[in-house]
């Protein structure tokens, strides 16, 4: 089991922000507006296609319709509330899943009895696409909020548990030896070596878990019962055949997800910097 | 007299995804007919809307999360056949079905669909109703191509021209409202066999432990049915149903000329029994059942019989034959 | 400055007798050390030189008690060594400071086992930081230090435990020649002020001659002691003096 | 023997060998036992937690009547087409992005942002626009794999150590030699790792798309099981999904190890 | 053996004139090299010593043509250097062999630019493997070699291109003292048999004195030439001879 395996945790994909490695070929690259070129072109083409009604207007809604729906349309303007509802759901589901993940990761990382007995089963269960659990989960826990919370918690649980486990297991022997030679007392060893050394790995797990849990939140709203939140909004848009609502919902979930990812990686670097773990 | 603490009634929410229902359940819920029956008791009544329709309500019964459930005959029979301790205590009436085609399609009626591709949700009440509707027009199942689609995919499938028509419940009306499609068939003004038929199902253990409570629930539901069938309540009905997301004017237009009393008929009569028997046939044909089911074992009409007499409704709703004609 | 006389009257601080060690490599036993006999007296500075892979680090690990499972005996202060214990400190070639702790906090870890009163503890840390010349860098993280400074902090962390025997595994290996010369003098100063017995592994013969009372030359396959060369020169030694160059040549010859 | 230092804590004691070998099976067996017990003791209705034996019977039944094979072949075909398309596209665009900063600046940020749109977001849009064809499934699977391969490829090229690139430049290799003897072997291991992640993501996307918008394949088999209230079919579906996901991953892991072994020649 | 006379009549093989180099660090320009003037004659062995960070590696990178963007002129064989080109080879401190190729294949890459006939090619590879003493390890991958062996393979890869000027960036830095002495003699042998001009960076003053005709001493901040010390001793030199020790001391003094 590797923590990096968990990059694919849920309905979507967690993609770490690319490292800025040295570039080999430089060209126009320094020209800043270049990055905006493609989005602008896409937006323009979309707008033109909608303007000249190249598709059915119900399907090919114009970008400004989608944008305005967030402010003027009664169904569309619920996107703000929906986002808040989804975030609240994310917060509680993630809190549950991440705590459980940390506990299990700590246990399997530190105690080999737990490791040997728990880890293989967890590794096997992880192979079942979480989405496939939904029919069974709804069967067990009903079609409502409980199941959604459990689903979100599961999406957070696996990456957090696996990364924490790995983080503990991969503490370099060199440091463990140094601690032994210094004959640190168990508590000092835990506080001064084990936890700080595992911190980056645990942070990675929390980061992947958070992004995964966001996608899990949307999936749960989409596929479990009638729900509010952005997932519910998209379902509503589909049911009412309102492409603008669907697009608005998808845009909102992408932007919020992006924000969550960025906030998580900022928090991580802040945390690690504060522990002298990066320069 | 012993009372349960709470009575939970599971129901299928409206197609628009709001936690409200149309039909009898919508009226009973909003006007609190069932609650009224328990005024003098500590019993609480809860309405539980479960998306995922039939399957979800079956799961809720298995989990002891509901005491009553309102859903299609077909899914409730499937649950019963698998060993759920459920009994049908009251019919629910018809769930209207529709067939829609793209706006510019030459198709005018079901007849024109011979040899065409029709999308519907396989192995559900809708699939079953479609076969009935086609049979009415003398079209055999192998004279059309039935394309399996999941609920939310019906709308885009027909607008993108992937199928020539789709067959399902009132959620299809959205398309007509948006001017993307036209309705070429509606069970509302046709044969009740082509409508989806539903029923209220109760947990057997509950019935046995609380017969009096069960009776009161059935009474409440019947009173709701009685209320909604009164012509003077027609407008208010539409307003109640509109809570589920469709505008009252559209409902009025859709149901123009439709007699609500015969559309929503809760009797456990011959017609109902016939529908149950037909559902068993359909399920066996589609290999949805494991082993045999005895339809007689599925319903328990004691409460209905008692209520209809007590409340003096014996002759209120028409009594129907197995093929849907009024006796 | 006068040469430090090798004290011979008292029993040796560390005494290895007939020490052998085997590792498993690819499932087959592989002899790393064979029949090592070595006595080290209190207060001396002993260096070990030898070709790469001859078992120098393995030997230090046995002495400090990180590895067990050897044959023969290791006696420290008269008692057999069975594992980690007080009195023996070690600084590794790579400094192994914990990157999330400041210099101060890292050095403070050395006091965890004995856990002296807070005031005394702060004082000890401060003094050892001064001893290795890192005053002003108390709050710095290892990443903010140069290689040589980190190495000195690691030595301070080992020293603060007040070991009677300090094991140093190529402590200056990472430094360039200028810094290296400087640190050699620092080590010498610490050794003389602290009266601690030093056992240092190095691959630089000149360094060994410059610092030690005795140089142990090891050979490889299997690791064994080839020669023990006493260095009877007064400190500070002149690297270009004839006696120095001769001793150096003698050790290099022993190595080949 | 390595001593005390190798373990994090004394908690990690050594066990007798047989005990250690048996440990991994303790939890699954306990779960199975608990499962059976829950059914026998009627803690949960066997209807929503079918007993293990029932699962096995259903599996055999579905196997014998060919439903598993049929559903599995459909799923496999979908993933083969979708993954092949996505991986090929990702490889080509990723190479361009890795080698050219300009290309990267134009396409990189947009593609990376689009990568954040989850499958569940793409699906309604694609279905609304394209209808419910097989193409939608291929596109969704391809999309799930495309971006991971792309990013792995671009990063692999960009992360080739500068030092090695310098060494290559000093040797003044001819372009073809540069490609075959340097670039390909240098980036292959990371790209294969990217393929492995991408295949995992593609499998997840497949299951989702089949469960939400399909009437065939393993994902739909589960949906069908739920519709007809046979949760044993659902569990069989889950087990197949798990096993297939595991096998795909193991195969890719094997390839990964092979590539890095063959390439780096350790051992 | 007689000292190699410095040839002065012919024009220098390499000639640096008023060479300066700046890098951007944190957006600010940082001068790495200032006003370097250096001529190197054909067939000589020149060493560069200097403190860490004084720009030794940067200088070699400029000469080989890896970096451009300097001020002043670099002339090689009379023509200005504008980028990579034939005639100049380089071996890096870390060997930089490609881990996915065997020793043989790695060395063969050196012949890719000139692409000689297959037979000749195989012969050249074989000979160079023998030259650096790696016969028997043709099929080994870099990971299966010790540090010193990999270093030698890297030198062979640079040599096989038959450069007239071979730049060596601390080629022996990774080796322990025994292997190092051995490789110094090997380098000397190669230099003498192959008649190639060597420009070697090292941080070991003794090594520089042992090998070179001339030692260039650099200073730092910014990197500049502090002194050029001709070494007029006959090969093989005695490291403990008075002349040797004196030259060594003089260079070390220049460094401090
Ligand atoms: N854990 C181990 N398992 C197997 N073999 C080992 C292990 N540790 C060391 N060895 C072997 O023991 C021998 C001695 O290693 P050691 O690290 O003690 O050498 P050294 O003298 O310190 O070398 P260097 O100067 O390169 O540090 C080597 O051949 C090495 O391969
Ligand atoms: N690409 C670069 N960008 C910015 N600064 C650089 C770059 N390369 C080198 N430098 C700076 O140039 C100076 C000289 O570096 P260089 O590597 O040439 O030193 P050196 O003499 O080889 O040192 P050492 O002996 O440690 O190898 C250093 O201060 C370094 O920080
Ligand atoms: Mg060592
Ligand atoms: Mg350098
Ligand atoms: O699932 S139904 O109740 O709609 O048949």
Task: Describe the overall structure.
The complex is a heteropentamer, with 1 copy of chain A (279 residues), 1 copy of chain B (327 residues), 2 copies of chain C (256 residues) and 1 copy of chain D (267 residues). With 279 residues, chain A is mainly α. Chain A has one domain (69-274): MetI-like (MetI-like fold), CATH 1.10.3720. Helices cover 70% and strands 0% of the residues of chain A. The radius of gyration of chain A is 22 Å and the shape is elongated. With 327 residues, chain B is an alpha/beta fold. In chain B, strands 2-1-3-10-4 form a 5-stranded mixed beta sheet, sandwiched between helices. Chain B has a 5-stranded mixed beta sheet with strand order 7-6-8-5-9. In chain B, helix 9 crosses helix 14 and helix 10 (234-242) packs across helix 11 (248-254). The longest helix of chain B is centred in the last third of the chain and has 19 residues, at 211-229. Chain B starts with 5 loop residues before the first strand and ends in a 17-residue tail after the last helix. By secondary structure, chain C is an alpha/beta fold. Chain C folds into 2 domains: 11-87 and 166-172 and 196-255, P-loop containing nucleotide triphosphate hydrolases (Rossmann fold); 92-162, no CATH class. In chain C, helix 2 crosses helix 3 (118-131), helix 2 (103-109) packs parallel to helix 4 (147-159) and helix 6 crosses helix 7 (242-255). Mean pLDDT of chain C is 85; it is low at 1-5. With 267 residues, chain D is mainly α. Chain D has a single domain (66-261), classed as MetI-like (MetI-like fold). Chain D has 10 helices and no strands. Residues 1-6 and 261-267 of chain D have low confidence and may be disordered. The chains are: A mainly alpha (279), B alpha/beta (327), C alpha/beta (256), D mainly alpha (267). Chain D binds chain E through residues 163-164, 166-174, 177, 181-182, 185-186, 262-266, and chain E through 61, 64, 66, 84-86, 89-90, 92, 94, 96, 98-102, 105, 109-110, 112-113, 115, 141-144, 157-158, 161. Bound molecules: adenosine-5'-triphosphate (2 copies), magnesium ion (MG) (2 copies) and sulfate ion. One adenosine-5'-triphosphate (ATP) is lined by residues 23, 25, 32, 50, 52-58, 203 of chain E.
Keyphrases for this structure?
heteropentamer; C: 256 residues; alpha/beta; Rossmann fold; 2 domains; 7 helices; disordered N terminus; D: 267 residues; mainly alpha; MetI-like fold; 10 helices; 0% strand; disordered C terminus; binds adenosine-5'-triphosphate; binds magnesium ion; binds sulfate ion; transmembrane (chain A); ABC transporter permease (chain A); membrane (chain A); MetI-like_sf (chain A)
């Amino acid at each position: 089991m590797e923590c990096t395996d968990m990059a694919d945790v849920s309905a979507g994909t967690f993609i770490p922000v690319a490292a800025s490695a040295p570039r080999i070929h430089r060209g126009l690259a320094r020209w800043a507006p270049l990055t905006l070129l493609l989005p602008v072109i896409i937006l323009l083409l979309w707008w033109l296609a909608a303007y000249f009604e190249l598709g059915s207007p119900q399907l090919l809604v114009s970008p400004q319709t989608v944008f305005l729906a967030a402010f003027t349309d009664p169904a569309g303007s619920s996107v703000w509330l929906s986002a808040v509802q989804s975030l609240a759901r994310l917060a509680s589901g993630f809190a549950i899943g991440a705590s459980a993940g940390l506990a299990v990761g700590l246990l399997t990382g530190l105690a080999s009895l737990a490791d040997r007995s728990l880890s293989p089963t967890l590794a096997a269960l992880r192979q079942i696409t979480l989405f496939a659990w939904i029919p069974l989960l709804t069967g067990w826990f009903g079609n409502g909020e409980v199941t959604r919370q459990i689903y979100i918690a599961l999406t957070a649980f696996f990456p957090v548990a696996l990364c924490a486990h790995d983080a503990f297991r991969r503490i370099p022997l060199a440091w463990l030896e140094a601690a032994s030679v210094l004959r640190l007392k168990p508590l000092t060893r835990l506080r001064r070596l084990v936890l700080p050394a595992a911190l980056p790995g645990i942070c990675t797990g929390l980061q992947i878990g958070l992004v995964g849990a966001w996608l899990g939140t949307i999936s749960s709203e989409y596929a479990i019962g009638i729900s509010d939140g952005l997932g519910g909004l998209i379902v509503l848009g589909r049911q009412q055949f309102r492409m603008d609502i669907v697009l608005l919902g998808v845009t909102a979930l992408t932007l919020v997800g992006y924000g969550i990812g960025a906030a998580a990686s900022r928090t991580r670097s802040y945390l690690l910097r504060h522990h002298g773990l990066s320069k | 007299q012993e009372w349960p603490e709470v009575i939970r009634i599971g129901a299928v929410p409206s197609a628009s995804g709001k936690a409200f229902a149309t039909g009898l359940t919508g009226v009973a819920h909003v006007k609190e007919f069932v609650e009224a029956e328990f005024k003098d008791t500590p019993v609480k009544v809860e309405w539980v809307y479960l998306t995922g329709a039939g399957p979800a309500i079956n799961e809720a019964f298995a989990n002891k999360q509901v005491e009553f459930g309102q859903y299609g005959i077909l899914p409730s029979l499937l649950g019963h056949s698998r060993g759920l301790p459920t009994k049908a205590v009251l019919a629910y009436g018809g769930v209207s079905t529709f067939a829609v085609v793209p706006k510019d399609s030459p198709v005018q009626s079901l007849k024109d669909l011979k040899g065409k591709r029709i999308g519907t949700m396989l192995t559900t009440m809708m699939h079953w109703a479609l076969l009935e509707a086609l049979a009415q027009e003398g079209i055999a199942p192998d004279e059309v191509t039935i394309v399996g689609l999941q609920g939310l995919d019906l709308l885009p499938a027909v607008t993108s021209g992937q199928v020539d028509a789709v067959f399902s419940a009132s959620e299809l009306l959205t398309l007509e409202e948006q001017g993307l499609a036209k309705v070429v068939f509606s069970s509302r003004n046709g044969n009740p066999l082509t409508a989806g038929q539903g029923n209220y199902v109760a947990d057997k253990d509950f019935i046995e432990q609380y017969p009096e409570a069960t009776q009161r629930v059935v009474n409440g539901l019947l009173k709701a049915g009685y209320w909604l069938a009164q012509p003077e309540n027609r407008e208010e009905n539409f307003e109640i149903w509109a809570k589920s997301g469709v505008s009252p004017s559209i409902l009025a237009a859709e149901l123009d000329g439709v007699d609500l009393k015969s559309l929503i008929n809760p009797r456990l009569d011959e017609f109902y029994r016939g529908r149950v028997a037909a559902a068993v046939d359909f399920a066996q044909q589609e290999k949805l059942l494991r082993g045999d089911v005895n339809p007689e074992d599925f319903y328990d009409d004691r409460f209905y019989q008692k209520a209809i007499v007590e409340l003096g409704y014996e002759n209120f709703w028409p009594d129907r034959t197995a093929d849907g004609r009024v006796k | 400055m006068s040469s430090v006389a090798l004290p011979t009257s008292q029993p040796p601080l560390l005494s290895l007798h007939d020490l052998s060690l085997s590792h498993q490599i690819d499932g087959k036993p592989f002899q790393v050390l064979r029949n090592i006999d070595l006595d080290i007296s209190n207060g001396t500075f002993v260096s070990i030189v030898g070709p790469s892979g001859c078992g120098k680090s393995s030997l230090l690990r046995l002495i400090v008690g990180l590895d067990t499972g050897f044959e023969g005996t290791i006696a420290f202060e008269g008692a057999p060594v069975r594992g980690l214990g007080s009195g023996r400190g070690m600084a590794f070639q790579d400094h192994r400071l914990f990157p999330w702790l400041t210099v101060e906090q890292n050095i403070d870890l050395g006091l965890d086992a004995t856990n002296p009163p807070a005031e005394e503890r702060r004082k000890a840390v401060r003094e050892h930081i001064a001893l290795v010349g890192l005053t002003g860098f108390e709050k710095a993280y290892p990443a903010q230090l140069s290689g040589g400074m980190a190495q000195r902090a690691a030595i301070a962390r080992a020293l603060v435990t007040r070991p009677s025997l300090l094991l140093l595994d190529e402590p200056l290996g990472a430094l360039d020649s200028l810094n290296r010369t400087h640190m050699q003098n620092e080590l010498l100063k610490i050794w003389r002020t602290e009266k601690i017995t030093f056992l240092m592994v190095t691959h630089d013969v000149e360094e060994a001659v410059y610092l030690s009372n005795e140089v142990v030359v090891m050979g490889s396959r299997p690791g064994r002691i080839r020669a023990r060369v006493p260095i009877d020169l007064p400190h500070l030694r002149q690297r270009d003096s004839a006696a120095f160059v001769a001793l150096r040549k003698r050790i290099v010859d022993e190595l080949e | 023997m390595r001593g005390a230092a190798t373990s994090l804590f004394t908690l990690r004691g050594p066990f007798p060998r047989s005990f250690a070998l048996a440990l991994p099976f303790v939890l699954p067996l306990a779960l199975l036992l608990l499962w059976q017990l829950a059914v026998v003791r009627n803690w949960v209705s066997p209807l929503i937690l079918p007993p293990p034996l029932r699962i096995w019977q259903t599996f055999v039944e579905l196997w014998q009547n060919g439903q598993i094979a049929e559903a599995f072949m459909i799923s496999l075909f979908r993933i083969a087409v979708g993954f092949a398309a996505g991986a090929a596209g990702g490889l080509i665009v990723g190479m361009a992005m890795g080698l050219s900063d300009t290309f990267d600046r134009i396409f990189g940020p947009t593609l990376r942002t689009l990568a954040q749109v989850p499958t569940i977001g793409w699906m309604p849009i694609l279905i609304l626009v394209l209808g419910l064809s097989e193409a939608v499934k291929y596109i969704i699977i391809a999309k799930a794999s495309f971006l991971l391969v792309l990013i792995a490829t671009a990063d692999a090229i960009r992360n080739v150590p500068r030092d090695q690139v310098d060494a290559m430049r000093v040797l003044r290799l001819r372009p073809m030699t540069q490609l075959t003897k340097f670039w390909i072997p240098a980036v292959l291991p990371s790209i294969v790792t990217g393929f492995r992640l991408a295949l995992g993501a593609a499998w997840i996307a497949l299951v989702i798309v089949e469960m939400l918008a399909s009437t065939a394949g393993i994902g739909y088999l589960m949906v069908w099981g739920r519709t007809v209230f046979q949760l044993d079919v659902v569990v069989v579906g889950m087990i197949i999904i798990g096993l297939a996901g595991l096998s795909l991953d193991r195969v890719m892991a094997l390839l990964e190890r092979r590539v890095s072994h063959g390439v780096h020649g350790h051992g």
